[in-house]
Design goal:
- The complex is a heterodimer of chains A (375) and B (436).
- Chain A contains 16 helices and no strands.
- Chain A is mainly alpha-helical and 375 residues long.
- Chain A has two domains: 21-143, no CATH class; 183-236 and 263-359, no CATH class.
- In chain A, helix 1 runs parallel beside helix 3 (79-89) and helix 2 runs parallel beside helix 4 (98-112).
- Chain A is globular.
- Chain B contains 13 helices and 17 strands.
- Chain B has helices at residues 122-131, 144-147, 172-179, 181-195, 209-217, 234-242, 262-274, 304-311, 367-371, 378-386, 390-395, 406-410, 417-435, and strands at residues 25-27, 33-37, 47-48, 55-56, 61-64, 73-74, 78-88, 94-104, 158-162, 199-205, 222-225, 257-261, 280-286, 294-299, 318-323, 330-332, 345-350.
- In chain B, the strands form four sheets. Chain B has a six-stranded mixed β-sheet with strand order 1-14-13-17-15-16. Chain B has a four-stranded antiparallel β-sheet with strand order 2-8-7-4, with no helix packed on it. A four-stranded parallel β-sheet of chain B has the order 11-10-9-12, sandwiched between helices.
- In chain B, strand 15 and strand 16 (330-332) form a beta hairpin.
- The radius of gyration of chain B is 21 Å and the shape is globular.
- The relative contact order of chain B is 0.15.
- The chains are: A mainly alpha (375), B alpha/beta (436).
- The interface between A and B is large, with 48 and 68 residues.
């Protein structure tokens, strides 16, 4: 018999069909429904911003890899596209078009490639890019909240909420006529009203204090009504591009679960913590907050599905993931209630990213059969 | 419906067992020349006990035991010793083989036949199992007599016979249970008698309902187990069967359990009842790289190429040849290697069957951590090993890894996790030796 030579390889010789590239493109697919919502509510400009971001991400990744003489095929593994899309999803629709380009380039070059590229970055590059833009261009980053459907001039720009909220929104300074406040801006206003009321009471001005408190309470109850919930679910509310429609984000989440990409410990512990703490201190006092409003408004659904669960920057141990989710949820709520920003999702995740290695180290699972005392 | 038990973690690779599971065991006569390895068992190879030109008879000791973890080797044929030389091995690079020209294959009974094993003492049976050269036939090839001689301070209360065969593709144990249940049952009884245990279970995965039914009808207490890889790994099987965790770095006997493969049980029955040493075994020849997959009863020393020749040859697109199963088996560059007592399968896989992913960086998805049956963090050990941080790899528990391959199987980045971890194990053991 003729001698035949066979290929040599390490065991195992068979394997699952899932690859990094498939995971990344699954995430891209899961982000598409939310992109449809962004386009519908904020106009074609939203689509343009997301496209610019994604294209910049791939280009920046390609150039970095080329410069560092690494295989440029990594630029097309889908991870850069995910970073670009997520950064764009964290921008208001009114930003000038160079902003997403600059932010994404920063995210890829400094946030990802400087650390060694895919798998080696310490913090979520998209969120780092957003933090960079927030620090550098705070006005542009917060003034461009377009009211939903404002691009279509016949729509009303108060996202259909009741009178008192619309009235409150008009007091929040905006860059131009088509801008609208986000629901969390409005909620933040009520905390300011509460603070003013306390001051007024201390100064002995009881009547003014009472009226301020009444106003704050009125706004809060208006926020916690069915029509607000519905608007938040559908996406008819001001905010970042990608966070607008909760329902369509959840459609993406279901797709990821079916494809075995979304690991549920992180999103559930994160969103669960946000909900519980919203009830504990998300309202005017203790134990009277509105968990549903806090979960639906702002970016926690987007963050919970796509950023808290980012594989690279979160713990690998089962326990560590739960701790990460709880920690990020706690920080989100503390920032929302007492911080300088109305929304705390992205900073909370960035801060937790930094302690991921520590969490991993402290939560290593007990090895099978590790000797139990007096076992 | 009986509730099937399992362990935590694990995966469900496609079984691919239907390629060969309906093929009855085909007893192959010994080929014209046999290459009998002197290191078919784990431990020290046996010392050659014959020299070139010697006439040998079937069952004659041609290699003598050298050391405690060692076994004698016997000639599977009547014939003449042509040479003793190094030869490619299924699990080692090369090893010494006694090359014998076959004249005939009758006889083989070299010990006294014991019709009633219970009239002999456990010590006599252990001696017989040792002299018969029986080692674990599930793959690891650990000398069986050592497992039957627990230190006196260990109280063994459970014997588990392993009929799980969790490696995809392999069907040798399955066929053996269907076609030769009585030998397995006698072997179980002898092993239980030798160890002095009452509680004796036969573990079978529920993807073999015919075997479960047959053994159940014969009055054996069958332990049905969920289909999950690596269900057949000793520690996972003991966990599923008894809820006991074998201590890290310890042995099953530390929790009062002995596990033996069904093939081993049948070999023990043959040695005790028929007085025949371990000369043959059941092998699955399968994969889409062979034209007709089959189950063979072949004598040790038969070359893989002989098996493949008997079956009808390779297909055009055969790519990889593996000794053992696809999860833990070794890939071979040549089919000119002999069958040993531990060869459970010969796999010829095509391009479509093997996984070929270019390795990319770990994305910390944590899938390996979720599936590891030993609750290790394979990605972290592998990263440490890649950077030659052996101490760190050891702190992550690298030495506990049994290389089952579950982590590499699920890794989306196609990382050679088992390879890195084995490398760490070698380095840690070598460093230990230096320090001591």
């Amino acid at each position: 018999m003729a001698t035949r030579r066979f290929e040599l390889a390490m065991s195992p010789h068979v394997g699952a069909s899932q690859t990094t590239r498939k995971i990344m493109f699954d995430v891209v697919i899961a982000l598409l429904p939310a992109l449809a919502a962004a386009t519908w509510f904020f106009g074609p400009r939203a689509l343009l911003i997301v496209f610019l971001s994604a294209a910049t991400a791939v280009a920046a990744e390609y150039l970095c890899l080329k410069f560092m003489k690494r295989p440029v095929s990594f630029a097309l593994d889908g991870s850069a596209i995910v970073t670009g899309m997520l950064l764009a999803y964290n921008l208001p629709s009114g930003v000038p078009l160079w902003l997403p380009v600059l932010g994404t380039a920063f995210a890829i070059v400094v946030g990802k490639q400087a650390f060694g590229g895919l798998g080696h970055n310490i913090v979520n590059p998209a969120l780092l890019g957003r933090a960079f833009l927030m620090a550098s261009f705070p006005i542009l980053m917060t003034a461009g909240w377009a009211a939903p459907e404002a691009w279509n001039s016949s729509a009303d720009n108060t996202w259909g909420t009741s009178g008192i909220v619309a009235e409150e929104m008009s007091t929040i300074p905006m860059a131009d006529a088509i801008s609208g406040a986000t629901p969390l801006n409005v909620l933040k206003q009520t905390f300011d009203l509460d603070a003013s009321a306390v001051n007024a009471r201390n100064e002995g001005n009881t009547a003014e204090a009472a009226s301020l408190e009444e106003r704050a309470e009125g706004i809060r109850s208006a926020l916690s009504c069915k029509s607000t919930y519905m608007n938040l679910l559908v996406g008819r509310s001001g905010g970042c591009l990608g966070e607008t429609s909760v329902i369509l984000l959840l459609v993406g989440a279901i797709y990821l679960i079916i494809r075995g990409v979304l690991e549920l410990r992180l999103p559930i512990s994160y969103l669960g913590t946000v909900a519980v703490l919203a009830w504990v201190f998300g309202g005017s006092g203790w134990f009277n907050g509105d968990p549903l409003f806090h979960v639906l408004a702002g970016g926690v659904i987007l963050g919970g599905i796509f950023m808290v669960s980012d594989m690279v920057t979160t713990p690998v141990t089962p326990k560590g993931r739960i701790i990460f989710g709880i920690g990020a949820g706690l920080l989100t709520m503390v920032i929302r209630r007492w911080g300088g920003y109305p929304e705390g999702c992205s900073y909370s995740i960035l801060l937790m990213n930094l302690v991921t290695p520590l969490i991993d180290k402290l939560t290593l699972p007990k090895v099978f059969g590790e000797v139990k005392k007096n076992g | 419906m009986i509730k099937a038990r399992s362990f935590k973690g694990g995966i469900h690779p496609p079984g691919n067992k239907d390629l060969s599971s309906k093929q009855p065991i085909n007893r192959l006569p010994a080929p014209e020349t046999v290459w009998v390895p002197l290191c078919q068992h784990m431990g020290v190879p046996s010392k050659p006990a014959v020299s070139k030109g010697d006439k040998v008879i079937r069952g004659q000791e041609i290699g003598s035991q050298s050391g405690f973890i060692s076994l004698p080797t016997h000639s599977p044929v009547n014939g003449t010793v042509k040479s003793i030389e190094n030869f490619p091995m299924p699990h080692r690079r090369t090893g010494p083989c006694v090359v014998i020209e076959t004249e005939s294959e009758d006889g083989g009974q070299v010990f006294e036949k014991w019709d009633d094993y219970s009239s002999h003492s456990p010590a006599e049976i252990i001696e017989r199992v040792k002299l018969a050269g029986i080692c674990g036939m599930g793959g690891a090839s650990f000398p069986t007599y050592v497992k039957l001689s627990p230190p006196p301070d260990k109280n063994i209360d459970t014997l588990i016979i392993n009929g799980i065969e969790c490696e995809p593709y392999l069907t040798a144990d399955h066929r053996l249970m269907l076609e030769n249940p009585d030998d397995i049952i006698l072997g179980m009884e002898i092993l239980a008698y030798t160890l002095g245990v009452e509680n004796c279970l036969l573990g079978i995965e529920i993807n073999k309902p015919d075997a479960i039914k047959l053994m159940d009808e014969k009055g054996i207490s069958v332990l049905p187990l969920k289909v999950s890889y690596p269900q057949g790994a000793e520690k996972q099987l003991i966990d599923a069967a008894t809820g006991r965790e074998v201590p890290a770095g310890g042995l099953p006997l530390d929790v009062g359990v002995v596990v033996q493969n069904v093939g081993t049980a049948a070999a023990v029955a043959k040695a005790v009842r028929d007085g025949e040493p371990s000369l043959r075994r059941i092998i699955t020849l399968t994969g889409r790289g062979v034209i007709s997959p089959a189950n063979y009863d072949a004598c040790v020393g038969t070359l893989f190429s002989d098996l493949i020749g008997k079956s009808g040859g390779y297909t055009e697109d055969v790519k990889r040849l593996i000794s053992g199963g696809p999860m833990m088996g070794m890939s071979l560059y040549t089919d000119g290697v002999p069958v040993t007592k531990g060869t459970s399968g010969v796999l010829a896989l095509t391009d479509d069957e093997v996984r070929d992913v270019d390795e990319s960086p770990c994305i910390r998805c944590g899938k390996c951590v979720d599936v590891c049956p030993l609750r290790l963090t394979p990605n972290l050990i592998a990263l440490a090993a890649e950077n030659e941080k052996w101490k760190l790899a050891g702190d992550f528990g690298a030495l506990n890894c049994m290389a089952c391959g579950t982590c590499s199987y699920v890794c989306p980045a196609g990382r050679y996790l088992v390879h890195y971890i084995k490398k760490a194990q070698d380095a840690i053991r070598a460093n230990k030796g230096r320090e001591a």
